[in-house]
Fold each of these.
Amino acid sequence: MIPISDNIRCWNKPIVNYWLIGINIAVFLWELKLEFSNELGYFVNSWGVIPAQISGAITNAIFLNFAAWIVVLWRLFSLIVGIFLHGSFSQILGNLLFLWVFGKTVENILGHKRYLGLYLAAGVVTGVAQILAQPSLTVPLIGANGAIAAVLGAYIIKFPQVKIYSVLPLIILYIPLEVPAFFYVFWWFVQQLFYGIGSLNIPPFGVNQSGVIYWGQVVGLLFGAGFMRFRTFVR
């Protein structure tokens, strides 16, 4: 099932959404360049979210010396950078498709600054949840999955019954459909079973090789839903 668009009119251009999509594409193209020169493994292992490194840096900072917190801050910066890294063609295509369909409407509701805040905060919160869930994991966790799950959660809270124009690909046929928005909460997690297709070569152990990444996205989904609910409540 491929979402195409909704029927909600946006009065303002989703500038932030365009920029987020553009940055993700630009970074992925840079990853392809690094893969060609055999430098991608070093880059991703330096800037991806590696729970063991972050939890280890925090432990050292607490029990050793104050200067060690500089290392902690550098490691925590990977929580932001990791949002814009992707490990496969299927991962970035799936993520950006959902961002394109659902992000523009959420940005129109929240405004540019709040929407950017939601996206980045959700990515960080998801990363923290993954670290807490498996602090000894040595494989990098990368991708905008948690941030986009939050965008989807915010959208569903506001428009659960809105029809999403979709297509169902059947080999050489494409069947047009209108699917309720809440269906894509389920489909979001299903499609990620295929995110290994077109994987980049990231030595030594690849990326995202842990079931904890899916639980992290549940956190992102709930964070986005809570963010939208709180905004509606205080308005």
Amino acid sequence: MPADPQPQPSRQATLADWLEGARPHTWANAFSPVIAGSGAAAWLGGFQLGRALLAGVVAWALIIGVNFANDYSDGIRGTDDARSGPQRLTGSGLVPPRRVKAAAFTCFTVAAAAGIWLSLLSSWWFIVVGAACIAGAWFYTGGKHPYGYRGLGEVAVFIFFGLVAVLGTQFAQAGRIDWVGALCAVIIGGLSAAVNLANNLRDIPTDSQTGKITLAVRLGDSGTRRLFVLLASLPALASLALCFATWWAVLGLAAVPLLVVGARPVARGAQGRALIPVLGATGRAILVWSVLTAVALAFAGA
């Protein structure tokens, strides 16, 4: 790992700077799987509010932690020196790298504490799953061989914020999983991967120059856009499929307009900062689909 650079900040970082560094537009990726998983648990007649809240703390702390970890790791590698996205704490020199790293591991500690508590209420092996999640969060851009620089970022997002988060939430509450939870996990994972993909689409030019080989760099501009549109279309199909469980699932179709808003700039060839709104629109679509689907499953719950 290179030695931490010590750029001289032009001003002191404010609370607003730290909030921007935590990247609130990604938080829907943390809350949505817990909401969808809780709805899937309610479908099985096993919803438990306390465990749902603990799962929410784990997911929220993890996503803020991974955002700070990426800020730190990308910053010390120099891959944030010429980016078109929101300001980074490390790359801008506003905050010393060691403080950003400490913030990341503080968040990971909070996630671990909530995860251990949840495991004591449900299953001991959640501790192992939680450890894997924290390792995945750090080594996305951290360490000597970050997998995010090998085009595996979207795969990890799909697994951790889709399959693990949704099905883990369902199992922690209901004690089992089913096809409804699995379908929700695939959709949430796919949309979360789409958010990550849009972020990397924006940064293709700078990532290519700095050796950060993301999936977007591997697929190229046109291939990345086609994959994003495909992933953004999944919730509509899933809502129709979930109608085999309950007709209430058609509520999820109300998220489609938000997905269209998010996908339009991508489909029309927007570049650079013009792609930033895609992240927020897609994040809101994930949240809306999760809430409406969870409500539908709860109404029809066993």
